[in-house]
Amino acid sequence: MSQVIVTSSYRGDFERCRLLCDSIDARVTGHSRHIIAVEARDVAMFKVLEGSKREIVDERDLFPWWLRAVPDLTHRGRRSIWLSLKGPIMHGWHTQQLRRIVLGSRLRETTMVTVDSDVVFLRPVHTSQFETASGKTYFYRKPGGVAEALPQYRDEHRRWSKKAGELLGIETPPHTDTGYIYNLVTWATDSVRDMNARIEAVSGKDAFRTLAATRILSECTIFGRFVEEVEGVTKRHEETNEPFAATYWDHERLDEAALDRFVSAMRPKEIALGVQSFTGTDTGLIRRVAGLEG
Q: Over pLDDT 90: what percentage of the chain?
């Protein structure tokens, strides 16, 4: 049994990713390494985060030659778009997902702990806690979770579920309301490889090429439906509906009092805090509340 932490990030989340790294270094033990995958132009910026157990991976080492980032001139080059000879133009949130799937299929460790940049660990954790004593990886699924999503996102979640079913050859049901998406989830890497093999068997094409041909993409939903409806949860996983992180999904910025209240309400199993970057909550404030100043 072995665990690796994986983060897919970009320059806009650099300070949050630095905070994540500081929290891992201070509070997380047991993992073999922490891999941060970024686009080519961000490698130099993120290199300062490297260490004895942390690697910065250039996405060009993960993607085929026909998918490459170029400056998005509609944003004066501050952002990138990804041009493809095999599919539609992609954006950063698509390629971050593709990086995680590729890494999961290549890793030698038994469990991949995928953690978003805007997560910070608040409590000590040994990564063996992400596996059972018998070596199964915890698998997050929340029945009815899609129906509990913010109203403006529910239809999109259902489109993701439907596309996952198509990619995996699941005819019935066409989609489900089970939620698999979270900012700290764990995958058995052998299951990622088997998921890719299933996608290839259904499409008759390479899994990456098939995934890169659509912008209706949720890696957590594809993996979740594969494990639950194709592979069978109990083969390599142990089901849980309790997330490892307490996450603030709303759009309003948190001040210190509100963030303190949110942290005080965390449940025992919630070892990390996630404050979505789009809320605009100050990273310095999160750092202070997390006790990682200085």
A: 90
Distance (Å) of CA 117 to CA 61, 184, 200, 230: 21, 10, 30, 30
Q: Is the residue at 255 inside a domain? A: yes
Number of independent structural domains in the chain = 1
CATH number of the domain to which 280 belongs? 3.90.550.10
Which amino acid is it at 66? W
Residue 100 half-sphere exposure, CB side, CA atoms within 13 Å? 29
- Entry pTM: 0.96
CB atoms near residue 279 (< 10 Å): 15
What's the pLDDT at 37? Answer: 98
Q: Is residue 19 part of a domain?
A: yes
Average pLDDT over residues 213-233: 97
Q: Determine, yes or no, domain membership for 175.
A: yes
Q: Which residues contact 90 (CB under 8 A, 6 or more apart)?
A: 67, 81, 82, 84, 212, 215
Domain of 262 in residue numbering reads as: 3-289
Q: Which two tokens stand for residue 39?
A: 């686009």
Q: Which tens digit of pLDDT belongs to each residue from 238-285?
A: 999 999 999 998 778 999 999 999 999 999 999 999 998 888 899 999
Which among 195, 256, 197, 249 has a CA at the least distance from the CA of 221?
A: 195
Is residue 91 within 8 A of residue 81, CB to CB? The reply is: yes
Q: In angstroms, rounded to a whole number, what is the distance separating the alpha carbons of residues 183 and 36? A: 15
Is residue 162 one of the residues assigned to a domain?
yes
